[in-house]
């Protein structure tokens, strides 16, 4: 009797990169592989599409899984997750059901740093507006602002915030303010920044960039009260997580002119609804969660995630996010 081939589904490959990495061809020799590029947003659709698969490759947090889905996916033995994040997964019930969840090394944050600096410069120099108007008129007379001489507040001083501060400080005559609960004056000074209280950062910055870790304590950390503290016309960049900022308060600040513009890569709900009010502001640069999404990073993560499945098929140890799971065999 012929054994049924091991089945792998690769989800949410919107950028069409999964089948370009070497491990994909190796995996196809060992398993039946399907790439699903259409987002599965509804639990019923997730179950209907995935009930016959033994393993899944997930790109970041694009699809969430709860025990409701696990219960209807009896063949599922392995989730190979790119990165180490697991907020979109019910890890406890995955472990209880014997579903192993493997991860890949986290990104170093450099690509998110690049995007953050790019958004700051694009907001200041009004790059999107000029680019658009160049299609409509001969020589747009849109004047931007210089980063030189500005005060930039870096809210959250982890590996990304610290690197943003270092790069911004390289521009002549810039002042960089840093805030995090554990930030010391000495650590801030290592990259030319000043450690200040959060309220001081809000009041003194011309541009504020958010790199705060998201959790229930930081949800809504920047709301109506915080926007009122900012300089009128200040610019705000968020490449961390959407719920750190109150969207309703941010929209009100844009409408009143308290905010001079925003550069956003993250939102309360993703994808951003087509009728979302943020889409109507021409001083809002809106990205589609591109902070980590470069060809180099995503290809490397797909390669690592598929190698994890190949190792699983060979019975080799996996870098598990739920190490207490009783790993089931591939058969």
Largest sheet: 7 strands, parallel
Global shape? elongated
Strand order within the widest beta sheet: 8-7-6-9-10-11-12
The proportion of strand residues reads: 15-25%
Number of helices: 12
The low-pLDDT segments are none
Overall pLDDT: 95
How many strands appear in the DSSP assignment? 12
Q: In summary, what is this structure?
A:
33% of the residues lie in helices and 15% in strands. It is built from twelve helices and twelve strands.
Written account of the structure:
The protein has 12 helices and 12 strands. The strands form 2 sheets. It has a 7-stranded parallel β-sheet, with helices on both faces. A 5-stranded parallel β-sheet has the order 2-1-3-4-5. By secondary structure, it is α/β, with parallel strands linked by helices. It starts with 6 loop residues before the first strand and ends in an 18-residue tail after the last helix.
Overview features:
12 helices, elongated, alpha/beta, 12 strands, seven-stranded parallel β-sheet, 331 residues
Helix/strand layout:
Blueprint: E1 7-11, H1 22-30, E2 32-36, H2 43-50, E3 55-58, H3 67-70, E4 78-81, H4 91-96, E5 100-102, H5 110-125, H6 127-133, E6 151-155, H7 159-169, E7 175-179, H8 185-189, E8 194-195, H9 198-204, E9 207-210, H10 224-229, E10 234-238, H11 247-256, E11 259-264, E12 284-286, H12 295-313
Parallel strand pairs: 1-2, 1-3, 3-4, 4-5, 6-7, 6-9, 7-8, 9-10, 10-11, 11-12
Helix pairs in contact: 1-12, 5-7
């Amino acid at each position: 009797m012929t054994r049924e081939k091991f089945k792998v589904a690769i989800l949410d490959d919107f950028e069409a990169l999964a089948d370009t990495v070497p491990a994909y061809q190796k995996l196809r020799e060992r398993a039946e592989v399907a790439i699903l590029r259409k987002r599965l947003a509804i639990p019923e659709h997730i179950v209907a599409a995935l009930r016959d698969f033994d393993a899944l490759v997930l790109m970041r947090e694009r699809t969430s899984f709860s025990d409701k889905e696990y219960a209807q996916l009896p063949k599922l033995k392995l989730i190979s997750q790119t990165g180490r994040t697991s907020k979109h997964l019910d890890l406890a019930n995955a472990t209880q059901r014997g579903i192993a969840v493997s991860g890949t090394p986290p990104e170093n944050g450099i690509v998110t740093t690049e995007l953050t600096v790019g958004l700051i410069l694009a907001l200041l120099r009004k790059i999107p507006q000029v680019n658009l108007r160049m299609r409509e008129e001969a020589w747009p007379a849109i004047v931007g602002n210089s980063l030189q001489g500005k005060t930039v507040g870096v809210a959250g001083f982890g590996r990304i915030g610290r690197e943003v501060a270092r790069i911004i400080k390289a521009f002549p005559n810039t002042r960089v303010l840093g805030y995090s609960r554990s930030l010391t004056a000495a650590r801030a000074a290592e990259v030319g920044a000043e450690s200040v209280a959060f309220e001081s950062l809000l009041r003194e910055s011309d541009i504020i960039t958010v790199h705060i870790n998201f959790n229930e304590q930081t949800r809504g950390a920047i709301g109506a009260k915080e926007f009122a503290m900012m300089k009128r016309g200040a610019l705000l960049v968020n490449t961390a997580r959407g719920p750190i900022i109150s969207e309703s308060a941010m929209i009100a600040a844009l409408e009143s002119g308290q905010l001079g513009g925003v550069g956003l890569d993250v939102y309360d709900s993703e994808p951003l609804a087509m009728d979302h009010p943020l889409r109507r502001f021409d001083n809002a640069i809106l990205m589609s969660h591109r902070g980590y999404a470069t060809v180099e990073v995503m290809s490397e993560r797909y390669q690592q995630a598929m190698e994890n499945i190949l190792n699983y098929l060979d019975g080799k140890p996996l870098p598990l996010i739920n190490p207490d799971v009783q790993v089931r065999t591939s058969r």
